[in-house]
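We treat protein structure as text, and this decision shapes the records that our systems exchange. The remainder of this section carries one protein's record, kept here as part of the documentation:
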Amino acid sequence: MATALKDLYGSEQSTFDQLVLADDYRPSDGEEFMGIEQRAYFLAKLKAWKEAIVDESRATMAQLQVDSLREPDMADRASSETDWSIELRTRDRQRKLIAKIDAAVRRLFDGEYGYCDVTGDPISLARLEARPIATMTLEAQEKHERIERVSRDD
């Protein structure tokens, strides 16, 4: 496992990867920001999220192999094709999400996780809890989206 993470994320193992946290542990503002416990917590959260996505993808692929799109009725076939098209688009979005999760794990090992790419300020724990792959503070993200919206309107 340690070698696999090192190979996957290109970093030496850190003690936070081996730390076992209590089931009820939640990061708090009263502790060191991105200290060993918080890093271990977010690593576990990111790994569990990725594992859930991969499991869903496997189930979808298995279902695609089992189901046949050979319904005799044209309306039923069209409905099935539409459902599978939506499902495959969802899986494609999740594939892109996995890349973001992997990037967040790399940032954890590099010591950059939890800090805004734009300002360098710490990202709030509440934001990281809600969106563990966040790379910007809420304020920087809002500013970025306003600029994008203005650029798109031109």
Summary: The helical segments are 2-9, 15-18, 36-66, 74-110, 125-130, 138-153. Confidence is low (pLDDT under 50) at residues 1-13.
